């Protein structure tokens, strides 16, 4: 496996609201540092200084676990390679795998962040289709390509059977990975693990915006629950199907004024409504037309919530990645790209 190329490596990934650094030794994560700073902070502050400081501090924290050894590579993915990140790297066009991403990757030396060069991985762009509304089939991703490639590699290493079971009508050459987060991302891969296209919704950010920047804020606790109430989640899913997301969201306020739901239940209701609405729209998209399997990743509780709702609405086998694969996928995928990169990415000996 490609991981044999790097005994010690650091993988950086940044999103809309968080940045993370992970130290890997022989493919295993041995230290993690997270900062609640993302590219949204760069946009709001009209500068990248805060993001650079967050990455530098996260790097310094995981480097302490390296016990004086220099990582063979520092690789950055996600929004860190966007125009509002640390180094702007253009998307590569789908279909694409590690080799295509490596050809589009760039090395940057950022002394304010790290002493050694950093390899920045591009995202992947799905082109538009023909027709009047063909532009609406276009999509972009940054970060999920590494998660997808990493999950694929780890599952292949375990010799997971990626073919559809005999009683499921499906094309065994197509698999979809679903990554809930600030942006829900469905990513289709072929039998070789190359990414064919993606589909994105704003579900995660929409939940946060409804909870913090609308009238609903007065009816909700500070922060959404890490352990949503199952019955309230089910009620949100049920009522969004009956009345639509706009009405279901307003019912949070009705629940508060009438005393129908407690604060945690109201937050759980909102989470359930947004996710159920997202899933209902997702299953109608061409990207979910009979893949052999759908693997759901991301963090909990979204992983289980999306997995459960997908299983109720889609005939394809829906499986959830375990914590080990879900937590390592991004870093493993980034190292897969780095392994195909030819230019030197080690610190100078001079």
From TrEMBL:
A matching Pfam family: DGOK
Record GO biological process:
D-galactonate catabolic process
Organism domain of life: Bacteria
Gene3D superfamilies to which the protein is assigned, alphabetical? 2-keto-3-deoxy-galactonokinase, C-terminal domain, 2-keto-3-deoxy-galactonokinase, substrate binding domain
Stored InterPro entries: DGOK (IPR007729), DGOK_C (IPR042257), DGOK_N (IPR042258)
* Single GO MF annotation: 2-dehydro-3-deoxygalactonokinase activity
Protein name per the record:
2-dehydro-3-deoxygalactonokinase
Query: Which organism is the protein's source?
Result: Singulisphaera sp. Ch08
């Amino acid at each position: 496996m490609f991981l044999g190329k790097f005994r010690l490596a650091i993988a950086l990934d940044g999103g809309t609201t968080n940045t993370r650094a992970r130290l890997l030794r022989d493919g295993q994560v041995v230290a993690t540092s997270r900062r609640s700073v993302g590219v949204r902070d760069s946009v709001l502050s009209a500068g990248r200084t805060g993001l650079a400081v967050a990455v530098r501090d996260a790097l310094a924290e995981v480097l302490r676990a390296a016990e004086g050894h220099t990582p063979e590579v520092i690789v950055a993915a996600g929004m860190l390679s966007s125009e509002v990140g640390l180094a702007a790297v253009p998307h590569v066009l789908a279909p694409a795998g590690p080799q295509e991403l490596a050809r589009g990757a760039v090395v940057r030396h950022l002394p304010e962040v790290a002493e050694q060069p950093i390899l920045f991985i591009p995202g992947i762009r799905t082109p538009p289709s023909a027709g009047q509304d063909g532009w609406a089939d276009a999509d972009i991703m940054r970060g999920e390509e590494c998660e997808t490639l990493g999950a694929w590699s780890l599952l292949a290493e375990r010799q997971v059977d990626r073919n559809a079971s005999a009683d499921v009508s499906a094309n065994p050459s197509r698999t979809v990975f679903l990554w809930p987060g600030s942006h829900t991302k469905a990513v289709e891969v072929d039998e070789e693990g190359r990414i064919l296209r993606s589909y994105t919704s704003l579900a995660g950010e929409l939940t946060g915006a409804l909870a913090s920047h609308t009238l609903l804020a007065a009816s909700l606790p500070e922060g959404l629950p890490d352990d949503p109430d199952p019955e309230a989640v089910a009620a949100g899913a049920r009522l969004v199907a009956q009345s639509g997301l706009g009405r279901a969201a307003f019912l949070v306020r009705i629940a508060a004024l009438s005393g129908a739901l407690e604060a945690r239940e109201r937050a759980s209701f909102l989470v359930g409504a947004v996710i159920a609405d997202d899933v209902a729209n997702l299953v109608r998209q061409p990207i979910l037309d009979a893949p052999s399997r759908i693997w759901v990743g991301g963090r909990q509780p979204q992983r289980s919530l999306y997995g459960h709702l997908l299983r109720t609405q889609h005939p394809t086998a829906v499986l959830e990645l375990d914590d080990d694969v879900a937590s390592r996928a991004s870093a493993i995928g980034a190292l897969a790209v780095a392994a195909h990169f030819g230019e030197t990415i080690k610190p100078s000996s001079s």
